[in-house]
């Protein structure tokens, strides 16, 4: 039987590359690689590749007292908004030899708190949290204890806590401009609950755009949750109230917009012929809906990747991370159209 070949060791890589073991160790560790010159790093990586050397992550974890895990808490993994964000997180973490551990709160703040506790108990080196409400104090407590924490898609009133969120004003202004150009004067806002930054900011953005372009406020109906069923109930109640039927509805997210479309059709009205509908987020498959949904979109993957990059920088010692705003764009599709003459409306 042939003798089993021993796995290459870090000392072998040092010998092959001509650098010290300490330099090789720093070059092959994503958290310290920036301390090594690019030329030395390339030489070390080439030597490791030739020898087939792979760092022992378990041993590294013991040496550095790091778990090499980042916890990620989302409000609803079934929401199509989050898979691309999580993919962005995982890809960036993978480049740093880290892994994510995903927890789902189901939209329950108490469950989110328990998930954070469990991730901390498991030794997560950092947290990316997408469940925070505006008044949530838990991220502030973590931040004040110098624990690496980044808020994803939402933020709290405490602006010291770093976050990666969508900058909705530009996309929202473009959407409203298009509706006005198409002759819509009866525009109603379908708002999300105001205890989250996404709900509050998106209502503020559409109100700001309306004040600037129209010189007036728009009627607002508020959904009780961020879901298709909540959007349906809010617009069903509006259409049954006897108030004027809107010519267009601008929803705070795509799920609310889908619920609005169902309520509109239930009243034997058509989208967009009778009522145009706008969403926010550009979830996967929005372009394949019936009709394809006009929406305000942003790069979900980039949002996740930037959150992961930020938390990794904090793990590496960055004590003053800056929050990031991801730009939004208006994406017109077939759920919006030129407004019909009011006299022909049902």
Descriptive account of the structure:
- With 346 residues, the chain is of the alpha/beta class.
- The protein folds into three domains: 10-55, 434 Repressor (Amino-terminal Domain) (Orthogonal Bundle), CATH 1.10.260; 67-166 and 300-328, Rossmann fold; 168-297 and 331-344, 3-Layer(aba) Sandwich (Rossmann fold), CATH 3.40.50.
- The chain contains twelve helices and twelve strands.
- The protein has helices at 10-17, 21-27, 38-51, 57-64, 82-95, 109-121, 138-144, 169-181, 197-213, 228-240, 254-266, 300-315; strands spanning 69-74, 99-104, 126-129, 149-152, 163-167, 187-191, 220-222, 248-251, 276-281, 294-297, 324-327, 329-331.
- The strands form two sheets. It has a six-stranded parallel β-sheet with strand order 2-1-3-4-5-11, sandwiched between helices.
- It is elongated, with a radius of gyration of 25 Å.
- The protein starts with 9 loop residues before the first helix and ends in a 15-residue tail after the last strand.
- The relative contact order is 0.12.
- Pfam families: LacI (PF00356), Peripla_BP_3 (PF13377).
- InterPro entries: HTH_LacI, LacI/GalR-like_sensor, Lambda_DNA-bd_dom_sf, Peripla_BP_I.
- Keywords: DNA-binding, Repressor, Transcription, Transcription regulation.
- This is LacI family transcriptional regulator.
- Residues 8-64 form the HTH lacI-type domain.
């Amino acid at each position: 039987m042939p003798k089993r070949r021993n796995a290459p060791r870090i000392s072998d890589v040092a010998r092959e590359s001509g650098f010290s073991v300490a330099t090789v160790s720093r070059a092959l560790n994503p958290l310290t690689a920036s301390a090594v010159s690019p030329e030395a790093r390339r030489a070390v990586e080439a030597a490791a590749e030739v020898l087939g050397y792979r760092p022992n992550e378990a041993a590294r974890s013991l040496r550095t007292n790091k778990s090499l895990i980042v916890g990620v808490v989302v409000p609803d993994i079934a929401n199509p908004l989050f898979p691309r964000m999580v993919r962005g997180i995982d890809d960036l973490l993978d480049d740093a030899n880290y892994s994510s551990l995903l927890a789902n709160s189901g939209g329950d703040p108490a469950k989110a708190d328990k998930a954070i506790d469990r991730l901390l108990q498991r030794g997560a080196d950092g947290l990316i949290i997408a469940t925070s409400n505006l008044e949530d104090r838990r991220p502030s407590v973590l931040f004040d204890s110098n624990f690496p924490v980044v808020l994803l898609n939402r933020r709290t009133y405490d602006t010291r806590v770093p976050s990666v969120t969508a900058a909705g004003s530009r996309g929202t202004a473009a959407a409203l401009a298009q509706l006005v150009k198409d002759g819509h004067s009866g525009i109603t806002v379908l708002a999300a609950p105001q205890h989250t930054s996404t709900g509050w900011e998106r209502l503020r953005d559409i109100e700001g755009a309306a004040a600037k372009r129209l010189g007036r406020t728009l009627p607002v109906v508020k959904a009780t949750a961020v879901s298709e069923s909540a959007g349906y109930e809010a617009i069903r109640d509006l259409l049954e109230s006897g108030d004027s039927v809107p010519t267009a509805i601008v929803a705070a997210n795509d799920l609310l917009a889908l619920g609005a479309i169902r309520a509109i059709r239930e009243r034997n009205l058509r989208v967009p012929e009778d009522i145009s509908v706008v969403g926010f987020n550009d979830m996967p498959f929005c372009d394949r809906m019936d009709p394809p949904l006009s929406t305000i979109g942003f790069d979900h993957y980039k949002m996740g990747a930037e959150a992961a990059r930020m938390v990794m920088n904090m793990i590496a010692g960055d004590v003053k991370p800056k929050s990031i705003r991801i730009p939004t764009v208006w994406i017109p599709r077939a759920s919006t159209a030129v407004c019909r003459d009011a006299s022909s409306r049902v």
